[in-house]
Amino acid sequence: MITTSTFDSRPAYGGLSLDERAKSHLVVAEGDGASAVLDAFEDAPPSLARTTLLYAGPDGMAVRLAILGAAEFRRTSGRLDLMNRLDEVFATSKMGARLYVAGTESFIGEVIAKAATYGVVPQSVIAEQRGSLARRVQCVHCKHVDEEVTATPYACGGCGQSLFVRDHFSRRHAAFQGVRVDAEVPGEIPAAEELVQ
Amino acid sequence: MTLHFKKETFRDDYTFSNSPEAIRRFPFPFEKDEYMYSVNIEQHMPGPQKSAFEFPIDIDEHYVAEMEDRAKVLAQDPGRCQSLPHMITAEWDLLELLMESMSKHYPEHFQLTRDGDDWRWVNKPLGVDQRFVFGDVSTLPYPPMEYITRQCQGDFALLDQRLDNLWMDAGVITAQADWSLDFDIGMNFMEWHAPVPLAKDMGIFERALKFLMNLQQGRPVRRLNWTMTINPRLDTSPENYDKWGVERTTVTPENVGNKVHLRVELQAMWRLPRSNAIVFSIRAYMIKMEELVTVPKWGRRFHRVLRDVKPELAEYKGLTRYRQMTVDWLSKHDDGAPTSPGFAPD
């Protein structure tokens, strides 16, 4: 199968920076993404008055975000809770809102995929990757999605087959593609390599 | 033209083969003794009589068997046919294009009668006689894209055009060379081509995208692409790679001629009138090495192409395990004589 690293489908995220022209700001962050939010918004009180901030992550970071001064701050219990809350926010969002995302690649991908279902153009989202380099991977055979994949090949949590992580990314699934590594010679499984970038 | 449809399979016992007539009309893709990527797009003009290019939509002796194979794939994996909600107009456009073309060029087999929006479609080889209202989904047993592509050879993708790009937002993909519609749906042109090596650095996709975004109604274009397949399997999907991948290790010097197939994709593209979407059709033709070398020029030339193909390309196309064995087998059919320019048999 493909082992090339030629790689146009994987989005590159430039980093958070405030869009002064936006009528309102919707900022969502997970885990270490909080530090990117602090870097970008700490010195922007006027904009913070038009900002909704959602966060899933540890206490220390949550406290620092809470006192940042956003018009609305909501800490959620985890990613699932945050995604549900995001549905409510999108449902009432208006033209001129700008979406910012900070966290792992998997988190950014999932937020952008959800936003796209509300008509947000993926290229319009401002995002910054922070934290773990783990990937979210969809098994092409059984379609199971594994989070936090850090090595290739890995064992699929759905069908149990050893999957090679292809350098191909789907925004709709917010996931990379996993393909059975030993399909041609069953049992011939190469040593796992860490996914470092 | 009255066709005789063969009874054959593309899985399990693999009874697929080409008649001598089908070999003669095989769209051999190499006009020289070497191959490298190029933006090899040309107008989809009518070609010579009896060739695969004679009509815009080519129906051949494998039609009925291919449609049976598609039905099996869709029964096992409905995700091979998907369409995002905004593509419904393009689906009707596609239905019109295929019904018009098939009935115009194969009137013995297909007939279309239009009375305003009241249409009647007769497909004799598959025993279909369907009255429906064009534009009314409830009058067909399947959504329009799925309905007509269950009756037309080739995979089909529908590409929406917006934001200076093409987006693969619908498709019926049951005979693919190792790419997943379920994974790629919603991607733009650059994204879904990301795994293809070399071509990107040659700027091929930028040029192809620019060309396609300017595609005009009534001026379809085509190109040929190729790969190789062990056994005449249409469904070489990544979804089922865990089942068919092992077949790549079954090639021996004795069975090369029968097992190893050159697989050519005739890709044709049309601009659609109502939706402004583009149809991307991918029609696969397969020919086993034994059949290929019955045309001496093709045997010589394919030996040279396969021998000299770049390693990255061989890897990407999945040829690595059986390439040398196939080159050795083909070498016995290459006497070193010069080959004439162009695709056609001498």
Task: Give a description of the structure.
Chain A is elongated and about 60 Å long. Chain A has five helices and twelve strands. With 197 residues, chain A is α/β, with parallel strands linked by helices. Helices cover 24% and strands 30% of the residues of chain A. Chain A has two domains: 106 residues, Rossmann fold (3-Layer(aba) Sandwich), CATH 3.40.50.80; 60 residues. Chain B has 346 residues and is an alpha+beta fold. Chain B has one domain. Chain B has 13 helices and ten strands. In chain B, the strands form two sheets. In chain B, strands 1-8-9-10-6-7-2 form a seven-stranded antiparallel sheet. In chain B, strands 3-4-5 form a three-stranded antiparallel sheet, covered by helices on one side. In chain B, helix 11 runs antiparallel to helix 13. The model of chain B has no long low-confidence stretch (mean pLDDT 95). The chains are: A alpha/beta (197), B alpha+beta (346). At the A-B interface, strand 10 and strand 11 of A face helix 5, helix 6, helix 8 and helix 12 of B.
pLDDT < 50 stretches of chain A: 1-6
Average pLDDT of chain B:
95
In spatial order, strands of the major sheet of chain A run 3-2-1-4-5
Instruction: Give the terminus-to-terminus CA distance of chain A.
Output: 20 Å
Strand arrangement in the largest pleated sheet of chain B? 1-8-9-10-6-7-2
> Which whole number gives the mean pLDDT of chain A?
91
CATH topology of the largest domain in chain A: Rossmann fold
Report the principal-axis shape of chain A: elongated
User: Could you tell me the strand content of chain A as a percent range?
Assistant: 25-35%
- What characteristic shape of chain B results from the CA principal axes? globular
The CATH H-level superfamily of the largest domain in chain A is Nucleotide-binding domain of ferredoxin-NADP reductase (FNR) module
Strand content of chain B: 15-25%
Q: Spans of chain B with pLDDT under 50 lasting ≥5 residues?
A: none
Rg of chain A (CA only): 18 Å
- Major sheet summary line of chain A: 5 strands, parallel
